[in-house]
TrEMBL record:
Belongs to the CheD family. It comes from the Bacteria. InterPro entries: CheD-like_sf (IPR038592), Chemorcpt_Glu_NH3ase_CheD (IPR005659), Cytotoxic_necrot_fac-like_cat (IPR011324). Keywords: Chemotaxis, Hydrolase. It is an enzyme of class 3 (hydrolase). Probably deamidates glutamine residues to glutamate on methyl-accepting chemotaxis receptors (MCPs), playing an important role in chemotaxis. This is Probable chemoreceptor glutamine deamidase CheD. The gene is cheD. Its EC number is 3.5.1.44. It comes from Jutongia hominis. The keyword Hydrolase applies.
Length: 161
């Protein structure tokens, strides 16, 4: 029986097929799934903030877009993944407040998505699909057997990207 491996907030993990990997309650946070298709190996990082250089006491590398993605790649390479083969799917980055604003502190979701995309672009990792923005939370599940990234939101149909 396959396991569902859980990733907490500001955390990451990896899994091999037939297991799958999930993170719950992505609001302004972004779930970044990296995938080495030939190895059927996936990793998932739950990014809370865009930039570790803006925060003191930033020992938790998984918390930030700039350090979390690097850290996830390191963990996957230990399991035999090749960075050159990695692809990404991302979800989250919602604007969880009812008002729109240009205040950077309140645009965390949008800034997280921008930071994740910039980091992946810099690393040469292609984003195959995304489900980001809008104003609702998401729970995601990644299945390395198929490469499916399943997105569940309250009151919305389940999406597979």
């Amino acid at each position: 029986m396959a396991d569902m491996i859980k990733v907490g907030m500001a955390d990451l993990n990896i899994c091999h097929a037939p297991d799958a990997i999930t993170t719950l309650g992505l609001g302004s946070c972004v779930g970044v799934a990296l995938y080495d298709q030939p190895k059927k190996l996936a990793g998932l990082v739950h990014v809370m903030l865009p930039d570790s250089t803006q925060v003191r006491q930033n020992q938790n590398r998984a918390k930030f877009a700039d350090t979390g993605i690097d850290y996830l790649i390191e963990q996957m390479e230990k399991e035999g993944a090749l960075k050159s083969r990695l692809t990404a799917k991302i979800a989250g980055g919602a604007q969880m407040f009812a008002f729109s604003t240009n205040n950077d502190m309140l645009r965390v979701g949008e800034r997280n998505v921008e930071a994740v995309k910039a980091k992946l672009r810099k690393l040469g990792i292609h984003i195959l699909a995304e489900d980001t923005g809008l104003n609702f939370g998401r729970t995601v599940e990644f299945y390395p057997e198929t490469g499916d990234f399943v997105i569940k939101s309250v009151g919305k149909p389940i999406r597979t990207i």
